[in-house]
């Protein structure tokens, strides 16, 4: 009796083992090894940056860049404080132009896409072609004209000088305004295309039903199309916010100097920790993380809607 | 509520390569106040385009559309006081049923919020959708969505209802039920309705009058029974009625007296003086007879009756539908022609049977073979015409 039960237990154990080993094939092992390798590959620079940002000069000299500071005395958060102090005005400036131009891009792009997709009029395709062409205009091609346009022809600072006496307004807001307009104009084509791809899938009969229900072109947009494109707005918010926040060339062209009161976060970051004595790596790393934080925050805020929008 | 007139309405689409396609060709229909008119025809016949022109969703190339004697060609869709029910229902997915129904009233009238809410509730109750008022369209079944789409049109109390195949996405049973309900609703509301369908059963059962379109041309406008018993041409005769009318290409041969004989390789059909007169001296003819007018008699051998209205045949297929049998027969010795007959469900006919087919003369239609126009239509003797078999 007992012998028999032992053999059945053994058999059960063997089949269980077999089941486990059955699942593991060479292909699966390879797949997971590759995946883990890729995770390491992508995370290593971030991890190196993070550990570097909290090292003292001694710590920096005595450890590999990707290793954490091994001695408690080598750890300091001072650089984060310094970087934050340097970057804070830039972060405010960046917010001041990124948020308005992101919102403007989304609203104007969605309206343009509506007009080009769901409203019927002659010459639509020609106008659409202009928008598409706008996507492919390289930044380098517009830098010189852009600089001349703002500094010679528009001169917003001088023209709006009557405003700067008002409370809460400062002369360097003219530069911020220039950046808002530039980023909005540059972002509209791609945003229009994104919205258009969604609007093309919208039921034509639904739009027609709304028109027959007595809604004007504007009311159809306001009450039908706009509420239905909220997920796409999330996609555009994340996409445009990241683009404009990280943008450097326009900042360099329009703002010019790191010392300008309108200097953006990216512009200040470019000079952070650079001096004649050498590069302050911990400071640069801390600065980079601080500058990247808002884009992460935006992604977290809109992640749900973003997933919905990407599906459409 | 309004009288609607289409006067030589024409729609031409221009393709990108400059080709012009006439979708609707000089269609004229007077739709009376409170009438239920069904536009019917095969797909691509221009019926939906006609409807969309009435709605204002499609421009009119030529002709006039009048609503109570006012030309509305250039009135934008939103100002036409017309409600439409679409095939896809076209509900607004982000709004509840209540908001869907209120939308039209909010956009097109100056009613206060309370009045709008009251009208929505009232209509929803009438349509039996009041328990659904706070749901979104995606939470409704197809049939419920269909009802909401209908309710959304009704709540506006428009001058004209337009319906573009509103029942075609429902299953057969629900469709039959909604057909009856729609008819009752329309009678109750007395609103002029134009209903587009490709389904001749819907056309026959629902319309006060039906307008049959083919290739953008209006073929005939009339009551369902007129179109059934007195088709204007071969197309109408073929389109209306299920199973379709049987047609035979024949030529005329003079017979004794005033009559004539219509002949082809298989058939020899004697007609009397009045049909012969209607035919005149035309030679290229089409003889038509509805399946339900044909009777089948058992026979031993190939016997023909002396009246010249019978032909021997053999049964190839019998499709029983319960109340009747649809019988497919091959005619003549060489079996070159096929004829379909519907006979009583209780009669015993089986595939392979040799029979004699009898086609009564008062049930035949004769058409001109070149123009396809009707020359002679069947006589309807009784005051109460037989109910068409649809």
Task: Describe the protein's architecture and organization.
The complex is a heterodimer of chains A (312) and B (390). Chain A is mostly helical and 312 residues long. Chain A folds into two domains: 2-74, no CATH class; 79-311, MetI-like (MetI-like fold, Orthogonal Bundle). Helix content of chain A is 76%, strand content 1%. Chain A contains 14 helices and two strands. Chain A has helices at 2-23, 26-53, 57-62, 78-117, 124-135, 139-154, 156-159, 173-199, 204-212, 217-228, 230-246, 249-254, 265-271, 281-311; strands spanning 274-275, 278-279. Chain A has a two-stranded antiparallel sheet with strand order 1-2. In chain A, β1 (274-275) and β2 form a beta hairpin. In chain A, α4 (78-117) packs parallel to α14 (281-311) and α8 (173-199) packs antiparallel against α11 (230-246). The model of chain A has no long low-confidence stretch (mean pLDDT 89). Chain B is of the alpha+beta class and 390 residues long. Chain B folds into two domains: 4-235, P-loop containing nucleotide triphosphate hydrolases (Rossmann fold), CATH 3.40.50; 245-299 and 306-376, OB fold (Dihydrolipoamide Acetyltransferase, E2P) (Beta Barrel), CATH 2.40.50. Chain B is 24% helix and 33% strand. Chain B has nine helices and 21 strands. Chain B has helices at 47-55, 97-108, 113-127, 142-154, 172-189, 200-206, 224-229, 234-239, 273-279, and strands at residues 4-14, 20-31, 36-40, 62-67, 70-71, 82-85, 160-164, 192-197, 209-214, 217-222, 246-254, 260-263, 268-271, 284-289, 295-298, 310-320, 324-331, 337-344, 354-358, 365-368, 374-376. In chain B, the strands form four sheets. Chain B has a six-stranded mixed beta sheet, sandwiched between helices. In chain B, α5 (172-189) links the parallel β7 (160-164) and β8 (192-197). The longest helix of chain B is centred in the middle third of the chain and has 18 residues, at 172-189. The relative contact order of chain B is 0.11. The mean pLDDT of chain B is 89. Classes of the chains: A mainly alpha (312), B alpha+beta (390). Chains A and B meet through α9 and α10 of A and β6 and α2 of B.
């Amino acid at each position: 009796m007992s012998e028999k039960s032992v053999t059945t237990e053994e058999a059960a154990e063997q089949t269980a083992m077999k089941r486990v080993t059955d699942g593991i094939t060479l292909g699966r092992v390879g797949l997971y090894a590759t995946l883990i390798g890729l995770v390491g590959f992508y995370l290593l620079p971030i991890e190196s940056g993070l550990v570097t940002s909290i090292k003292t000069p001694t710590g920096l000299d005595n450890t590999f860049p990707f290793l954490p500071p091994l001695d408690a005395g080598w750890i300091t958060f001072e650089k984060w404080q310094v970087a934050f102090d340097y970057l804070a005005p830039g972060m405010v400036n960046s917010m001041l132009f990124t948020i308005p131009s992101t919102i403007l891009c989304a609203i104007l792009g969605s309206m343009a896409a509506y007009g080009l997709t769901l409203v019927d009029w002659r010459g639509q395709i020609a106008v659409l072609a202009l928008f598409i062409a706008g996507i492919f205009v390289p930044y380098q091609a517009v830098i010189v004209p852009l600089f001349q346009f703002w500094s010679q022809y528009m001169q917003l600072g001088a023209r709006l000088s009557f405003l700067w006496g008002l409370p809460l307004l400062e002369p360097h807001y003219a530069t911020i305004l220039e950046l808002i307009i530039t980023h909005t104009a540059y972002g509209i084509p791609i945003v229009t295309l994104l919205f258009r791809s969604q609007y093309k899938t919208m039921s034509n009969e639904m739009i027609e039903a709304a028109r027959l229900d007595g809604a004007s072109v504007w009311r159809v947009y306001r009450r039908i199309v706009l509420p239905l494109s909220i997920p796409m707005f999330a996609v555009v918010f994340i996409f445009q916010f990241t683009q404009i926040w990280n943008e450097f060339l326009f900042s360099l062209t329009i703002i010019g100097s790191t010392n300008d009161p309108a200097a953006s976060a990216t512009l200040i970051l470019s000079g952070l920790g650079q001096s004649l004595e050498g590069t302050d790596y911990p400071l640069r790393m801390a600065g980079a993380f601080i500058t990247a934080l808002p884009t992460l925050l935006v992604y977290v805020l809109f992640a749900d809607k973003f997933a919905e929008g990407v599906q459409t | 509520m309004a009288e609607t007139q289409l006067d030589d309405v024409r729609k031409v689409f221009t393709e990108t390569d400059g080709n012009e396609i006439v979708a609707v060709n000089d269609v004229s229909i007077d739709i009376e106040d409170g009438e239920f008119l069904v536009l019917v025809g095969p797909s691509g016949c221009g019926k939906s385009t006609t409807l969309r022109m009435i709605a204002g969703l499609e421009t009119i190339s030529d002709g006039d559309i009048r609503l109570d004697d006012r030309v509305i060609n250039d009135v934008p869709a939103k100002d036409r006081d017309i409600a439409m029910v679409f095939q896809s229902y076209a509900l607004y997915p982000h709004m509840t049923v209540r908001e869907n129904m209120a939308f039209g009233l909010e956009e097109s009238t100056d009613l206060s919020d309370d009045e709008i809410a009251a009208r929505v509730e009232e209509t929803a109750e009438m349509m039996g959708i009041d328990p659904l008022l706070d749901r979104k369209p995606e939470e409704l079944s197809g049939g419920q969505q269909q009802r909401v789409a209908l309710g959304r049109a009704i709540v506006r109390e428009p001058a004209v209802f337009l319906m573009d195949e509103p029942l075609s996405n429902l299953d057969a049973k629900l469709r039959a039920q909604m057909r009856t309900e729609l008819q009752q609703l329309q009678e109750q509301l007395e609103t002029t309705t134009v209903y587009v369908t490709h389904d001749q059963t819907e056309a026959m059962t629902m319309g006060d009058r039906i307008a049959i379109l083919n290739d953008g041309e209006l073929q005939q406008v009339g009551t369902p029974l007129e179109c059934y018993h007195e088709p204007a041409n071969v197309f109408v005769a073929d389109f209306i009625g299920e199973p379709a009318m049987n047609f035979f290409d024949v030529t005329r041969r003079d017979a004794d007296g005033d009559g004539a004989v219509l002949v082809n390789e298989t058939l020899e059909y004697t007609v009397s003086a009045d049909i012969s007169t209607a035919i005149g001296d035309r030679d290229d003819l089409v003889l038509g007879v509805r399946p339900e007018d044909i009777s089948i008699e058992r026979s031993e051998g190939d016997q023909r009756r002396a009246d010249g209205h019978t032909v021997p045949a053999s049964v190839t297929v019998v499709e029983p539908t319960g109340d009747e049998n649809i019988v497919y027969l091959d005619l003549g010795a060489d079996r070159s022609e096929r004829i379909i007959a519907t006979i009583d469900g209780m009669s015993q006919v089986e595939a392979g049977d040799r029979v004699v087919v009898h086609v009564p003369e008062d049930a035949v239609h004769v058409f001109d073979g070149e123009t396809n126009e009707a020359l002679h239509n069947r006589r309807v003797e009784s005051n109460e015409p037989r109910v068409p078999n649809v």
